[in-house]
From TrEMBL:
It comes from Streptantibioticus ferralitis. Coiled coil: none annotated. Keywords: Membrane, Transmembrane, Transmembrane helix. This is Integral membrane protein. The keyword Iron does not apply.
Amino acid sequence: MVVKLPWAGDLGIHAATVERLRHDLGNPGDPLVKADVNSPYYSPWMLFLALVAKVSGATTFHVLHLAAAINLVLLITGIRQFVRTLTTRPAAVPLAILCVTLLYGWELFTWSGFPGATSLALCIAYPSTFALGVAFHLWALLRTALSRDWGWLPYLGLGALLAVVLLSHQFTGVVTVLGLLAILLGARPWPGRAVWLRIAAAVALSLVIVLAWPYYSFFSLLSVGGLEEIHRPLYDHLVSRFGLLSLGIVALALRFRRDRRDPLALFFAFGALVYALGGLTQHWSYGRVLPALFVSAQVALAVELAGESGRRVRRVLVPVTAVALLVGCWSQAGALSYVMSTRSIPVVRSAPTQHEWGGYEWITPYVKYGDVIMTKDYFALRQSPAYGPYTVEPGYPDFFLKDEAQRTKDTKAFFARNTSRDERLRLLRKYDVRWVIQFRSDGGFAPGDPALRAVASGPDGEKLLKVV
């Protein structure tokens, strides 16, 4: 997946973010549209990638391949380090990797920040994967710091890392904080006054970094609207999508019976509380806390399977988990179709699959960096900014863009059949549009109108038209 980097989902917005930063580190503007506004996508991780691109001269997609490789290493080593703080049994780490990537449900469900195999296949280069990998390391480092009585400087380092996670992917930042809180409250022995002072200093440093970040105001995200309906699916079909996690809940119950302050049990409880609160209040965006439930249950099951539970419990738990992992293998097997022919693996043909998209590089010989495109096509809106141009309407929800609704309205008006030619020309001038991407059925100018000149055709029959 690191080599292939499948085109789907949010890859376009992250590629566009690197493009804007590599061209203007000081004032990159909106990643998707030509507007001088801040964006939460300009995170420390994306800034690092843009600097790599700027210094090396590598293309944006080459840098995203590098990001995918780093993210994969961070995630796998993070799981390893965290599990090693919970048990020394050698089987626990590979079991944890299997559970984290495969143990969900029998209905495929992918989402950024969710560490299932198919989600990772599509999101391996995303900031959410980077943040989750760092989160695992943070949890491991905090457990080590508490057990070895680390000094002030390492704790300040933990605070700085937490700020990077919070700024890089805010939802994963919430999950990270819940995990850190669970580890603190589950620490044995209970941390002394000196340790709490170091923790307070680490939190203070993290807040300072977050407040000082120049690319966007972190706490202004608390007041943005429009998040709820997007996240409504996180509360649907829970049994079919996440039913296999019930085995992890059994493992958590076993751990809770042994230790009422078990950090994994507390982690799960905190995540479940936030998730339930979101469902009760219809704040569906709270569903992004689900990785807290996933990770705590999956890691707990891996640790118990490796030998922490008694032999009698393992006689039941091991074969049932083996069957559950096989079901998980089938439900996630569609991800293999991104990198190999399904003919070589017959089971993939019947497995649920999320299809990748075709690239949009066919416009690059004509459309230059910073050109504005008028289009209402789903894929053009989400993919073309990855190659440098802007669109009139943003392809992804943009909560910092105050005229987003107007841009959407103007795009619909441009292609509407009852819009006059003069009004269409006015809209092109309003946004300094240089190109139009459309299918024949989209509407817009009448065929052969002198305002546009056909330049190229896409693989699916869409036309690239130059504004004359």
